[in-house]
Design a protein that fits this description.
Protein name: TnpV protein
InterPro entries: TnpV
Pfam families: TnpV (PF14198)
Low-confidence stretches: none
Number of domains: 1
Shape: rod-shaped
Order of helices and strands: EEHHHHH
Strand content: 5-15%
Strand order of the largest sheet: 1-2
């Protein structure tokens, strides 16, 4: 099989450097969890980030992490709310205390997701 590639070059001082471009990756909306993980791997796992980027797998990887984290977060919130009695009946009886409990539960669920999926 024969390929015909035209390579363009850019002059950098005394050197001609090839103009390299990555193929277009699919446009996928990445949520907050995927964006957090992206920042983390860019700063702390540069080799993993570069490998995913150059193999054109970064977008799919981040979308997968985002989906897993979202599912984990909502599952944890639901489980913790049931365990701690933050029910609709409790909400009707004492709305302010219910809001406090739910904020606490959401914060703990966020910390768990961050520790187990995002910052690893």
């Amino acid at each position: 099989m024969k390929h015909n590639f035209e390579i363009s070059y850019t002059q950098q001082g005394d050197y001609l450097l090839p103009d390299l471009r990555l193929p277009e990756q699919p446009k996928v909306e990445i949520g907050i969890w995927g964006k957090r993980h992206l920042r983390y791997i860019k700063q702390h796992h540069k080799i993993r980030y570069t490998d995913l980027l150059t193999s054109c797998k970064l977008t799919a990887y981040l979308a997968d992490i985002d989906e897993q984290a979202e599912e984990m977060f909502f599952r944890l919130v639901k489980q913790l709310a049931e365990k701690e009695g933050a029910t609709e009946q409790f909400k009707a009886e004492n709305q302010m205390l219910w809001v406090q409990r739910m904020n606490n539960i959401r914060n703990r669920a966020t910390e768990i997701v961050n520790a187990e999926l995002i910052y690893v």
